[in-house]
Design a protein that fits this description.
It comes from Alkalibacterium iburiense. The protein is mostly helical. The chain is 83% helix and 0% strand. It has two domains: 2-68, no CATH class; 84-234, no CATH class. Helix 8 packs parallel to helix 11 (202-234). The radius of gyration is 19 Å and the shape is globular.
Length: 235
């Protein structure tokens, strides 16, 4: 009976959605990056699979259906861009300068550490989109030849770290402008960091949400340009 239940896609779909909803409720009661629904549900599902010795292929009987929502989720980001278009018009110099600088510096750091630790080409491609939202990162990683499942994990880890350290970084470097704070969080730690930006203030939350979209667009545009460089340096 239990084996039949494991082979049911409905079980895995229900488990995943249930964990996501539970995390959302916990995060409302105790705001914490560890209770971010994406992080919580992924970690708990991994623990269940490991301790019950259930193959990933078994989970994917139901879990694969969530892949169908990646493209619609990417398109839905345009809604956030539309809602914050006035902020983009007002602060476009700061937004574009901050995001382009951040993306280029981030890419150079990836290349530098990859050369230092002698990463393979697919690992470099996996890390390139780590600071953009999952829906876009998956497509970028796939187009560059990266390991998609590892990209998702790195994106989640980046978001959690960004949400945790952002207030401390702002305090240490005396960054008190709300626009700058929002751009920094959104362009480096995507949706998870944005939850922290919203806590800091309305302007920070709006700018962070807008930066998620613009950063994703910038990375998608620049990704094809990095592919020849990856192949040249790591082949």
């Amino acid at each position: 009976m239990f084996e039949l239940l494991l082979l049911s896609p409905i079980m895995w779909i229900t488990l995943t959605i249930g964990l996501y909803l539970i995390a959302g409720a916990l995060n409302k009661k105790w705001p914490n990056p560890l209770f971010t629904p994406l992080v919580f549900s992924i970690v708990v599902i991994i623990l269940i699979l490991v301790f019950m010795d259930i193959p990933l292929e078994t989970y994917n009987i139901g879990g694969q259906f969530f892949n169908l929502f990646i493209t619609p989720a990417t398109v839905a980001l345009a809604i956030k861009l539309h809602k914050n278009i006035e902020h983009l018009r007002k602060y476009y110099h700061a937004i574009l300068t901050g995001i382009f600088t951040g993306v280029i510096f981030h890419t150079l750091m990836i290349f530098g550490f990859s050369l230092l630790f002698q990463f393979e080409e697919d690992m470099v491609a996996t890390l390139i989109p780590k600071s953009i939202t999952t829906a876009i990162a998956v497509g970028v990683s796939e187009s560059l030849g990266g390991i998609i499942s590892l990209t998702v994990g790195v994106v989640v880890f980046t978001g959690v770290i960004g949400a945790l350290v952002a207030p401390t970084v702002f305090r240490l470097f005396k960054i008190d402008d709300p626009v700058a704070q929002g751009i920094a969080i959104g362009s480096s730690s995507h949706a998870m960091g944005t939850t922290k930006a919203i806590e800091l203030g309305d302007v920070q939350g709006a700018m962070s949400g807008l930066s998620i979209v613009v950063t994703g667009i910038v990375v998608v545009i620049l990704a094809p340009l990095t592919l020849p460089l990856i192949q040249m340096l790591f082949n």
